Automatic annotation (TrEMBL):
Organism in which the protein naturally occurs: Actinocorallia aurantiaca
PANTHER family: MARR FAMILY REGULATORY PROTEIN (PTHR33164:SF99), TRANSCRIPTIONAL REGULATOR, MARR FAMILY (PTHR33164)
UniProt keyword Transcription regulation present: yes
Superkingdom as given in the UniProt entry: Bacteria
Pfam families xrefs: MarR
Designated name of the protein: MarR family transcriptional regulator
Keyword set includes Cell wall biogenesis/degradation: no
Domain HTH marR-type: 9-138
InterPro entries named among the record's database cross-references: HTH_MarR-typ (IPR000835), MarR/SlyA-like (IPR039422), Tscrpt_reg_MarR-type_CS (IPR023187), WH-like_DNA-bd_sf (IPR036388), WH_DNA-bd_sf (IPR036390)
Cited SMART domains: HTH_MARR
Coiled coil: none
Keywords associated with the record: DNA-binding, Transcription, Transcription regulation
C-alpha cells in the first residue's frame, strides 16, 4: 500500500462518503416520515424473514442489550413480535407483523425513491457506476459495519 498522496483517490473517497451520507440521510428522512428512529428502520429493512435477536445485533453492530430496546420499540408499535425459535425455545425470533411488513415496504419504497433522485443525474452511466462499485466491494474485505445503535 502506497503512502504517497493521491489527489484522485482522496477526491473519490470524499465523494463516496458524501454520496453514502446522502443515501443515509434519505433513508433517515423516509424513516422519520413513517415515525421510526433510524435503528428501528434498519431492523425493519433487514427483517425479511424471522431472525434471532443475535442476528439483529450482528446486522446493526450492536450489543444484544441495545437490540432488545430497539425491538421493544418496534413491538410497542405493533410492527414485530417475538416468537420462540422452533429448534430452541430459549432463542427468540423477531417476526414482522402484517403492519410491520406494510411499513417495511413503504420504507423501502420511500428510501429507494430518494436513491433514484440522487443517481438520476448520471442517466445511463448508473449501470457503469453499479459495476464499478460492485467490483470495489468484491475486491476488498468488509472491515465491519457502522454502529447503527449509536444513531
Amino acid at each position: 500500500m502506497s503512502t504517497q498522496a493521491d489527489p484522485t483517490m482522496d477526491e473519490l473517497t470524499d465523494l463516496v462518503f458524501l454520496a453514502a451520507g446522502r443515501l443515509r440521510g434519505g433513508f433517515n428522512t423516509a424513516a422519520a416520515e413513517l415515525g421510526l428512529p433510524p435503528a428501528q428502520a434498519l431492523v425493519l429493512t433487514n427483517l425479511s424473514a424471522p431472525a434471532p435477536m443475535r442476528d439483529l445485533a450482528e446486522w446493526l453492530s450492536c450489543e444484544p442489550s441495545n437490540v432488545t430496546g430497539i425491538v421493544d420499540g418496534l413491538e410497542r408499535r405493533g410492527l414485530v413480535i417475538r416468537r420462540p425459535a422452533p429448534a430452541d425455545r430459549r432463542v427468540k425470533h423477531v417476526v414482522l407483523t402484517e403492519e410491520g411488513e406494510r411499513r417495511r415496504e413503504e420504507l423501502l419504497a420511500r428510501s429507494r425513491a430518494q436513491a433514484r433522485a440522487l443517481f438520476e443525474p448520471i442517466g445511463p452511466d448508473k449501470e457503469r457506476l453499479r459495476d464499478l462499485l460492485a467490483a470495489v466491494l468484491a475486491g476488498s474485505p468488509d472491515p465491519g459495519k457502522g454502529h447503527a445503535c449509536d444513531r
